[in-house]
Amino acid sequence: MMIFDIEVSHLSLKYKKFEALKDISFTLENGKIYGLIGRNGAGKTSLLSLLASLREASEGWIKIAGENPFENYKIMQNVTFVHETNYTEESYKVQKYIALATQFYPNYNQEYADYLIKRFKLPINKPVNKLSKGMQSVMDVIIGMASRAPITIFDEAYLGMDAPTRKIFYQEVLEDQEKHPRIIILSTHLVSEMDFLFDEVLILHNGSLLVKEDYETLVSRGATITGLTSNVDAFVVGKRIIGKQQLGNTKAVTIYEENMDKIEEEARRNGLTVGPISLQDLFIYLTDDEEVA
Amino acid sequence: MKEKSLILKISKSLFIEQLKWSPWFISIMFLLHLIVSYFQTRIDFTLNSLFGFSYYSTNIYMLIIGIIAGAYFLPFYVKHGITRKNYFIGATLSALGLSAAIATIFAILSFLEGAILWFFGIERLTTTILTVNSGNHWLLSFLVYTLNIFTYYLIGWLITTGYYRFGWKIGFGFIALAILSSIAHGFLWENELYQQFVDKLPAQIGGLSLLISILLTTLLNCLILCIIRLSTRKVAIKL
Description:
The structure holds two protein chains of two kinds.
Chain A: E1 6-15, E2 18-28, E3 33-38, H1 44-51, E4 59-64, H2 73-76, E5 79-82, H3 94-102, H4 110-120, H5 133-146, E6 151-155, H6 163-179, E7 183-188, H7 191-194, E8 200-205, E9 208-214, H8 215-220, E10 222-228, H9 229-235, E11 241-247, E12 250-256, H10 260-269, E13 273-276, H11 279-286, H12 289-292
Parallel strand pairs in A: 3-7, 3-8, 5-6, 6-7
Antiparallel strand pairs in A: 1-2, 1-4, 8-9, 10-12, 10-13, 11-12
Helix pairs in contact in A: 3-5, 4-5
Chain B: H1 3-19, H2 23-40, E1 47-48, H3 50-79, H4 84-119, E2 125-126, H5 138-188, H6 192-197, H7 210-232
Parallel strand pairs in B: 1-2
Helix pairs in contact in B: 1-4, 2-3, 3-4, 3-5, 4-5, 5-7
């Protein structure tokens, strides 16, 4: 049986003179959910379309299950890529469209698709272009989930979905992943809403891979130190500060350091309060160009 | 699934989807021909059978189907796990099947209509489909019809491919290529344009035999297919 791990080495992508991806290397393991986050234009979709063999890299290589995926039918039929699609001209009925889109995925499960159609209340007899944007996204998500492809990619798949619908989507990702483990890549900038899904996080910034880390490890590197302004100011000297907040005599400073366990202990000894920080805060900090400049 | 059966599945799926686009076209041609046949009894002129009558319109129809299918199905299939190569082979097979199917449907309808008209005493229909003499042999006529509408499908596919792969500037070049192919094809089958030029052509080019026309058309088709394949071999799929 093939194990669909992904190995990416020194990957670059150029569009004429613009460098969309710069020298990216990482590996992804079967059974994990990866969050791919990055600001607009960071290169998320470019990277994902390379993984889905929709284009060829300018330099470097990708291996999926140990093989080059590009124009490799054994690999390509095991990768599903859900992305925002313009459906204004799509007059096929939903049911027909789903059937056409999923017909070549070896692991596609019709029962599961039917279950999802019910759960999301997707009207299957409407033409696709008559669906609301949110329902079109639901259809895409159903195609992606029910294909049960060993590599399942959702590129901002939630667009137009309302909050309750997104919640169902997240639940389904977790539930089906438990029963049928695969690699799921969720690209998003709704970080605070989706971070609980991620086993690992990849942060792309200006075409480079900034972070590829286990979610828990990553967020444990940050903390908010709260206390009297003078105490806090004295404590954070020489530490990497991500953010500050002042309320009267109280100050909260967010810091980001490797050896956070020690720092937290020291802070508590100094009578300061230590709180966790979110991936969202980290993401904003790490991709903030202004601060660097 | 083995690669061969995968390709067969692709071509079957493409064949069915495209054939489903065709009933309205076939019905319109059928009705139109019935109406013209009716007037034929009033005014004295010779009318082709539905088979011959539909030929030029079917060329245009196949051109359009080729344009639409090439633009729609390539990105759709590649996005859903099919390699460009397997799509290319599957699409070629399906287009060949579609050409044969449409020729068959018109042949059967022609036969039925002939029988009905005969029943009402109208018998002036001829079965010539082209100026080139296909000897009125039904199998040859069928082959020629299939081959030629297939060519027009490929010409449509060629145009779409040029636009998809290279954008509108070079896309225009592909239109020029398509027009050239269509002129070449017309000459091979001695169409009206050819009739105007025939006197100016060297004698040895005029009066192609049927076999040569078939062979050269097949060659033309292979050439177009080569250009399509070379242009889409590694084409980036737009999102």
